[in-house]
Design brief:
Layout (H helix, E strand, L loop, with lengths): L18 H22 L4 H28 L5 H24 L3 H38 L1 H10 L5
């Protein structure tokens, strides 16, 4: 099977413009690709479960880190973003319980793919919102009007 059919490739369009978050997202994309490969290769349930556990553990840490940064940046929708993280975490817990009970490989493969899709959708939809916020903030900091205002407010040096 051609890798291009299932592999997600990192591109700058996935970047949020923050090196440490982008690195965590790159790691997430690598984990998604590992999971996809294991499912496509019909690896055993224990292997897929290990990959899912690792992905969810890293997602949990990432959510915490991202929320901390969003607070530092005074992101206006940080509460809604944190709520999305909590909702995703609850969904992951439910899906993992279903995964653990599933005996048929088709069923647990679908559960793994569902978790993967939830995480990918979050990256592509929710995380891009704060990327846009950060880009607008950078643009406003660079605007000539903003710089003129800052010079007017700056205390005079004697």
């Amino acid at each position: 099977m051609n890798n291009c059919e299932w592999e997600i490739r990192w591109s700058e369009s996935l970047s949020v413009g923050v090196a440490e978050i982008d690195q965590e997202h790159r790691q997430f994309v690598a984990r998604v690709n590992e999971l996809n490969k294991a499912i496509i290769e019909c690896r055993n349930k224990a292997t897929v479960e290990r990959l899912l556990d690792l992905m969810l553990m890293e997602a949990s840490h990432h959510f915490w880190h991202e929320q901390r940064l969003l607070a530092l940046w005074n992101y206006p929708d940080r509460a809604a973003h944190a709520a999305k993280h909590a909702e995703l975490t609850a969904q992951f817990d439910r899906i993992m319980k279903e995964f653990e009970r599933a005996d048929v490989s088709f069923t647990w493969a679908l559960k793994g793919l569902h978790i993967k899709q939830l995480l990918v959708d979050h990256l592509l939809q929710e995380d891009m919102k704060y990327r846009d916020f950060l880009l607008r903030r950078k643009d406003s900091e660079r605007s000539p009007t903003c710089r003129r205002r800052e010079r007017k407010r700056a205390p005079a040096v004697a």
